């Protein structure tokens, strides 16, 4: 008997039931396997699916219909081969390209699906591919391995079933998170126990909520609740845990990672979408011409043609349809047939080779990106993973960027500190002024400390000197840093390494180690620190851990019968708890000045304090603290309240300043992109204050901004109220503030406070309305920062338009604490309501969803895996390369494609419309004016290569100037180089060219048209003049000449003459035999050729001379500067004032700015304090006192490069007619209008 496999229910899954160690039963539920698929085709579906996609292009569908018409002999005057060959060629080339792209996707899928996991099979763990893992399997994982699927943690090598994971692929955060198995499963330690496990899991269905999991597990009749604390999600990495066991809950597409990834959609560029409308317009124009010819044919046949039926009767098909006596009906039939005949004759007005030419150009553009050595990082080149979206890179208006790993390296470095009123860390020059450290700046010498990190960089030698001299303040500060933390130590490669809950805390402990205060190990009751070759043992009494309300952490330790409390946290929190003594008051003033200086440099600050605690006070407090920790209700609030009692009367030590290392070149890239009128939104999973500090560091937020609005309400009414208040402040700066007290630093409350700066209203992208207010637009800019919990309500249909309106009125937008799905929803919101091209960039799996939703997705090959790269359209090694990708490659691609399209439509209208003019002289019989072979070869051979060379190699300015003048990018954002108006301009140019070309040639050859041979001679002459004319036009359009341009332009003309002489020779029985000799031997032809070319080209050249001389664009000016750079050296000083100079290694004064302070405490997660003090993270528990070392992967540090943000160099003209003209001629002695050259400069006239 056959056993039919139970199908997965069609209705939506409401709950999931899993039987551990019973795969046969689990299979009956039809749960998804662990196979991941991002490819579009397979061997069976490729042909039908690809053809369906290709015929969605109107041009391809149009030519399919045309081919069917050409198979009807009664209406076709051309052989079907003329359509079949190019159509098949287009379909094959496109299919080949799509197949290559999909093969790469299959390879990437195989890399992921081919990863190996250890799966329990028949009582033995066997190696299995990821795609063979199914729901209900038990998996064995080891440290540093990726989690293959969503797992329920059963047990681990650590006490009490603890394990630690890194979730960078999910939320972008590299700090560790703990997970703990249920006590009932934590004892499962071997294969036999796992195989004997019989349990039933009932849990929620697949969903995209990363922070919540609900379910139960039933083992031997006992039901235990399950939460997110027992779940390991696919994409996480197991850290600091030797091994663990887990059972698969969700696999493949059902995992939360894939649920947040979104669907892969077919992306089309805006030019592709515009071309569809253009093709529709051309078809309508074609049908209109056919209708005109049909009416004219009916009139001509009824008046003139009917008289010749005696000697030349109508086609027998006509008589069969209407009979020989119904002449009126016969004329109507002939007219209808002529309609279809002219649809075939004039079909070249819709170019079949257009799309394949565009694909070839895009394919070449992708190689320019792949081969660009300026975008190679650590041997990782930039890569165009798709070849269909290149020109869209030149039209980006909104960039949505992740933060961690995208803008930053996620590496914190100890930069400066203030100790007992003395500031350390500044680098000064010979004049005593503070400067930026350079590569040749000498470092402090840590060579006498064997535990020092050789990568640690600190320049102020006085701090190390004071420590060695035994300065009491320095000693106390670094003792605090080595004791007050929850860091775990480990040893790797013979070196001590730390694993911290946050990079901030790790940087502080690492700094203490480098200065000689080495944290060695800990257990639940003791901490060991090595100071100056002596090991100090401290008894750990309590850890008062950090949380978002306390914004501080403290440790209470005992040494030599003295109890000491060390505390670190936000400056305002610590200062409120200082003892009211003269020493503290004086120290507060000095330390506050230092904090302001640190914050103005974008550093993350916190304050440090201490106090001695009398034994009697501690004993009394400890009793109350224990009572609070075991309270059944409001336990956290009670614990915090008791902690307040002992964290008082503190003595201030000083402050520390940490730098969150940006990737190289990020500030310069963001400043340049902002100059190009590109709006940048940061979407991050980090906390609000961390995101704001990074915003200041990377110049996304600046001191010139009038206000930074914070939206952090937790309900819809509160979010709407905050947005309404922000809108009122934007449109009317005199309106009431979002809060009664406007402080320089916003407090993180539900009030939505903002930074106050003098200024006026801001309306669009942070710019002043016309005539409103004073000052420049940059100084009046505003920014919006919104929390993820508020974004939930802001993205609802009721509020989303208000949110979008406010966001678009601000210069910068930062969304923090957002989920991967929220990132995608924000991008989708802008796509839906703004006619703008969007780009999303990220480096982790948490960015995949927005990368797929955006018009362009860019993945960074970073430390968070390859998920973002695999889902992206383009990949780069660093964020700074995005500047070159857009401003150089993107702008060039758009510029070339736009110029290609303008010329392509021009030459095709000039070619096709000659048939229409000829119709008036051939009785509207659908006779072609050209040889049929010329019609087939015109787009295929004669005119294809010059325009392809132009589309592949042309450039108006070089890469250096494209980067130096970001405003050159703005025509792409405004869609100025190819739009409906540009198309109609090209169409009009082509129509006028065909009209002039035809009637000049007709007038010249009027007396040779009477005989049959004269008709062929006229067609040959007309074709030759057309080829020369359009070739001269493409030569005029070429702005950047290469050997390929010369060869293709000259070679195309030579090839035309050679092939014409060969095709019309006696070798072939052509009706045009000998016509070429008659035409080319006639002086009248050559005179007509020169006359026609001159008449057609002089207006083009004159117009360009006029525009370049009277209304030069930025492109014209920069191109002129580029061509005559040697003659403009005297004006370079004036030019530098308008351009953004790049950062040089010479020393410069440090520029200060206002920043959020004490963001360390805000960005820090709740630590391992509870686990440490309870001993649950120690191998032998609290009583054993044994030591467990913990590891942290060493991270490479790179220096940050900060660039200045200067105003735009040129205004961009509003008129599309002014943009990007091709003529580059200025007469000698003319004054170049604009800031490029304000004095008279003799300029050599260059050729077109």
Automatic annotation (TrEMBL):
E.C. number(s) listed in UniProt: 7.6.2.1
Positions of the catalytic residues: 402 (4-aspartylphosphate intermediate)
Binding site for Mg(2+): 402, 404, 843, 847
Occurrences of domain P-type ATPase C-terminal (ranges): 869-1107
Compositional bias (Polar residues): 1131-1145
Record bears the keyword DNA-binding: no
UniProt xrefs under Pfam families: Cation_ATPase, PhoLip_ATPase_C, PhoLip_ATPase_N
Domain P-type ATPase N-terminal: 19-84
Membrane disposition: Multi-pass membrane protein
Listed PROSITE patterns: ATPASE_E1_E2
Keyword Heme found: no
GO cellular component: plasma membrane; trans-Golgi network
Regions crossing the membrane: 58-75, 81-100, 274-300, 330-356, 900-921, 933-953, 983-1005, 1017-1036, 1043-1064, 1084-1107
Biased amino acid composition, Basic residues: 1147-1156
A Gene Ontology biological process term: Golgi organization
Amino-acid positions noted as binding ATP in the UniProt annotation, renumbered to this chain: 402-404, 505, 546, 568, 604, 684-686, 817, 823, 846-847
Coiled-coil intervals: none
Family from the record: Belongs to the cation transport ATPase (P-type) (TC 3.A.3) family. Type IV subfamily.
PANTHER family documented for this protein: PHOSPHOLIPID-TRANSPORTING ATPASE, PROBABLE PHOSPHOLIPID-TRANSPORTING ATPASE
Protein name according to UniProt: Phospholipid-transporting ATPase
Organism listed in the record: Ramazzottius varieornatus (Water bear)
Gene that this polypeptide is encoded by: RvY_09313-1
């Amino acid at each position: 008997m056959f056993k039919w496999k139970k199908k997965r229910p069609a209705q939506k899954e409401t709950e999931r039931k899993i039987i551990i160690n019973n795969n046969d039963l689990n299979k009956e539920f039809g749960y998804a396997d662990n196979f991941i698929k991002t490819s579009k085709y397979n061997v069976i579906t490729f042909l039908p699916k690809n053809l369906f996609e290709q015929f969605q292009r109107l041009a391809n569908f149009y030519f399919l219909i045309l081919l069917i018409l050409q198979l009807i002999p009664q209406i076709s005057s051309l052989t079907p081969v003329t359509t079949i060959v190019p159509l098949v060629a287009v379909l094959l080339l496109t299919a080949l390209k799509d197949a290559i792209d999909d093969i790469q996707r299959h390879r990437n899928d195989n890399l992921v699906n081919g990863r190996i996991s250890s799966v329990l099979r028949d009582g033995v763990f066997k190696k299995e591919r990821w795609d063979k893992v199914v729901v209900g399997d038990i998996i064995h994982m080891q440290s540093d391995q990726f989690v293959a699927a969503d797992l329920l943690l059963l047990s681990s090598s650590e006490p009490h079933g603890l394990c630690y994971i890194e979730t960078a692929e999910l939320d972008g955060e590299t700090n560790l998170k703990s997970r703990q198995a249920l006590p009932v499963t934590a004892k499962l330690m071997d294969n036999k126990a796992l195989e004997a496990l019989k349990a039933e899991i009932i849990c929620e269905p697949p969903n995209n909520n990363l922070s919540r999991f609900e379910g139960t597990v039933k083992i031997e009749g006992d039901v235990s609740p399950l939460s997110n604390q027992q779940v390991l999600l696919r994409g996480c990495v197991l850290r600091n845990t030797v091994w663990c066991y887990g059972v698969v809950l969700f696999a493949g597409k059902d995992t939360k990672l894939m649920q947040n990834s979104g669907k892969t959609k077919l992306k089309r560029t805006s030019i592709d979408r515009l071309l569809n409308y253009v093709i529709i317009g051309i078809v309508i124009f074609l049908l209109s011409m056919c209708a005109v010819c049909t009416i004219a044919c009916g009139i001509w046949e009824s008046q003139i043609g009917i008289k010749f039926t005696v000697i030349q009767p109508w086609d027998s098909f006509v008589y069969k349809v209407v009979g020989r006596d119904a002449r009126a009906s016969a004329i109507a039939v002939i007219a209808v047939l002529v309609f279809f005949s002219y649809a075939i004759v004039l079909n070249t007005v819709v170019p079949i080779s257009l799309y394949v030419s565009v694909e070839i150009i895009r394919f070449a553009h992708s190689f320019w990106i792949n081969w660009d050595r300026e975008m190679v990082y650590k041997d990782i080149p930039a890569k165009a993973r798709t070849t269909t979206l290149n020109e869209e890179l030149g039209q980006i208006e909104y960039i949505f960027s992740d933060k961690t790993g995208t803008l930053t390296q996620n590496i914190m470095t100890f930069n400066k500190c203030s100790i007992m009123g003395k500031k350390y860390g500044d680098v000064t020059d010979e004049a005593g002024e503070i400067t930026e450290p350079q590569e040749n700046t000498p470092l402090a010498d840590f060579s006498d400390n064997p535990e020092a990190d050789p990568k640690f960089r600190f320049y102020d030698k006085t701090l190390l000197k004071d420590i060695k001299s035994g300065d009491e303040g320095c000693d106390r500060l670094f003792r605090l840093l080595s004791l007050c933390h929850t860091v775990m130590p480990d040893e790797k490669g013979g070196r001590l390494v730390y694993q911290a809950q946050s990079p901030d805390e790790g940087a502080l402990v690492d700094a203490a180690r480098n200065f000689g205060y080495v944290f060695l190990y800990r257990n639940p009751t003791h901490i060991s620190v090595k100071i100056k070759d002596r090991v100090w043992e401290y008894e750990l009494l309590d850890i008062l851990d950090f949380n978002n309300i306390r914004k501080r952490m403290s440790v209470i330790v005992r040494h030599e019968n003295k109890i000491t409390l060390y505390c670190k946290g936000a400056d305002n929190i610590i200062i409120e708890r200082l003892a009211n003594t003269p020493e503290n008051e004086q120290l507060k003033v000095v330390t506050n000045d230092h904090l302001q200086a640190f914050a103005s440099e974008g550093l993350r600050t916190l304050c440090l304090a201490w106090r001695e605690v009398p034994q009697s006070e501690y004993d009394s407090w400890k009793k109350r603290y224990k009572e609070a920790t075991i309270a059944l209700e409001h336990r956290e609030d009670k614990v915090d309240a008791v902690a307040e009692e002992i964290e008082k009367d503190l003595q201030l030590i000083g402050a520390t300043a940490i730098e969150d290392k940006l990737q190289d070149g990020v500030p310069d890239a963001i400043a340049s992109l902002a100059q190009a009128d590109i709006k940048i939104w940061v979407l991050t999973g980090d906390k609000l204050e961390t995101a704001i500090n990074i915003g200041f560091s990377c110049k996304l937020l600046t001191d010139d901004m009038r206000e930074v609005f914070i939206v952090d309400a937790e309900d819809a009414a509160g979010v709407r109220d905050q947005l309404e208040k922000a809108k009122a402040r934007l449109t009317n700066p005199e309106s009431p503030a979002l809060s009664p007290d406007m402080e320089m630093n916003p407090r993180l409350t539900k009030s939505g406070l903002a930074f106050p700066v003098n200024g006026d209203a801001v309306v669009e992208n942070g710019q002043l309305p016309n005539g409103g207010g004073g000052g420049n637009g940059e100084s009046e800019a505003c920014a919006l920062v919104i929390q993820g919990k508020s974004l939930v309500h802001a993205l609802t249909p009721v509020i989303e338009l208000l949110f979008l309106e406010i966001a678009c009125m601000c210069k910068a937008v930062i969304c923090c604490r957002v989920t991967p799905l929220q990132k995608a929803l924000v991008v989708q919101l802008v796509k839906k309501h703004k006619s703008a091209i969007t780009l999303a960039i990220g480096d982790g799996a948490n960015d995949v969803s927005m990368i797929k939703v955006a018009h362009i997705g860019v993945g960074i090959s970073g430390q968070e895996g390859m998920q973002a790269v695999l889902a992206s359209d383009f990949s780069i090694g660093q964020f700074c390369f995005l500047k070159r990708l857009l401003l150089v490659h993107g702008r060039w691609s758009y510029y070339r494609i736009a110029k290609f399209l303008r010329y392509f439509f021009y030459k095709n209208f000039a070619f096709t419309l000659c048939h229409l003019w000829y119709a008036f002289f051939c009785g509207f019989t659908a006779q072609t004016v050209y040889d049929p072979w010329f019609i087939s070869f015109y787009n295929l051979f004669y005119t294809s290569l010059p325009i392809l060379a132009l589309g592949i190699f042309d450039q108006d300015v070089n890469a250096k100037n494209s980067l130096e003048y970001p405003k050159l990018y703005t025509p792409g954002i405004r869609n100025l180089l190819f739009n409906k108006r540009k198309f109609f301009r090209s169409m009009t140019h082509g129509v006028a060219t065909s009209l002039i070309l035809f009637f000049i040639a007709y007038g010249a050859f009027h007396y040779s048209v009477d005989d049959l041979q004269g008709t062929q001679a006229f067609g040959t002459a007309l074709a030759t003049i057309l080829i020369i004319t359009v070739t001269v036009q493409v030569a005029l359009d070429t702005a950047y000449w290469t050997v390929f341009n010369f060869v293709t332009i000259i070679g195309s003309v030579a090839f035309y003459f050679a092939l014409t002489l060969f095709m019309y020779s006696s070798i072939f029985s052509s009706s045009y035999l000998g016509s070429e000799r008659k035409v080319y031997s006639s002086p009248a032809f050559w005179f007509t050729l020169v006359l026609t070319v001159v008449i057609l080209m002089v207006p083009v050249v004159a117009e360009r001379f006029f525009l370049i001389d009277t209304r030069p664009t930025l492109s014209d000016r920069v191109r002129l500067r580029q061509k005559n750079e040697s003659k403009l050296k005297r004006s370079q000083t004036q030019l530098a004032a308008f351009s953004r100079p790049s950062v040089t290694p010479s020393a410069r004064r440090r520029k200060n700015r206002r920043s959020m302070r004490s963001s360390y405490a805000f960005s820090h997660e709740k630590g391992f304090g509870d686990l440490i003090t309870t001993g649950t993270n120690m191998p032998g528990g609290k009583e054993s006192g044994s030591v467990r070392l913990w590891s942290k992967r060493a991270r490479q540090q790179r220096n940050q490069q900060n660039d200045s943000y200067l105003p735009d160099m040129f205004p961009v003209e509003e008129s599309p007619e002014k943009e990007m003209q091709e003529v580059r001629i200025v007469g000698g002695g003319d004054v170049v209008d604009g800031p490029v050259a304000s004095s008279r400069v003799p300029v050599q006239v260059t050729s077109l």
